[in-house]
Amino acid sequence: MWPSFTPGLAAARCRGCDHPRPPYAGGYASVRTRLSVMVSMAKYVGCEVCGVLSRGILAVLEDEGNGLGLEKEEVEELQLDFNLAGARRSLEVVVVGRGIKVAVFVDEATPWLTANLPDVPIGRAIPSATSSEESLSWALAQIEHCKTSHPACNTLPPNPLPSRVLDVAAPGTSGVRLYVSHGETTPYAALSHCWGHRPFLRTLSGSLDDHKNEIVWERLPPTFQHAVALTRRMGLRYLWIDSLCIVQDDHGDWRTEAAKMAAVYRGAEVVVSASRAENAYMGLYAEVPERYKRVYTVEFKPGQGAGSSDDGSGDEESSTPEDEAISPPPP
């Protein structure tokens, strides 16, 4: 029977979208429904949630620019997955049988959203590349928010520099050298990366003095070059990279410094993770596929039965719209 709901949900909820749901409780729930039912509930019953979701889903499916270009009649069965990760809010709409998943998020929380769509997270449109200024601005904003809003973070004492760090504002052509610290309490970045099987630049006993003088830029693999440039863009002077800040063929130094690695990462102002790279030559950044850049915005005025008309005419002219962005999720 359609739609089918997770056991225990109240019968009074809308049969198209299973709302209203209780305030976010951190648990996963899944609802099977039909697009035609949601459209009907919005049009004839005035369900605002059905209206918002169905209009957003149709915008995604009917857009030929994303390679779908489906008609409403071609799509029936939907699955609404709430809080897939369990630990955080999320709403994902699955077009059953077509391998299409649509993520739902909002720009900011509002009383209407809290009351009607409590599981929808606050999100942002995905920038075209992780190297973009937009991505950097977002990262810096998160760091600032952490430092100013989290009591556990803004009360921590300053951390001293690791034993050795890269000075990325050093004199010389490359502007990079290995610096031996003296207990300074200065913010620094740390790089987390996969070594892989391809050899790359490391600090050895025979190159230690040379690296203290200057590290030739061209000898740095792309991931390290990107990390140095990002550290500079973030306004930091020092960067810790394990392979360059620990003498790799000195067993005593390695034992001493490797034992401090957890503290090094914990004490960093920011840890830059090259999570997509299998080795030091793949770099930090990624271009976002075109289909993940598309964001579809649905606007309506609460109390007027959003989605009650097929084209939504009149809803977008509201001076106080509730905005909900619907986008294909990242890979």
Automatic annotation (TrEMBL):
Q: Where is this region: Disordered?
A: 302-331
What positions does the domain Heterokaryon incompatibility occupy?
A: 188-286
Which protein are we looking at?
A: Heterokaryon incompatibility protein-domain-containing protein
InterPro entries recorded: HET (IPR010730)
Name the Pfam families for this protein.
HET
Residue ranges with Acidic residues bias: 312-325
Q: Per the UniProt entry, what species is this protein from, by scientific name?
A: Staphylotrichum tortipilum
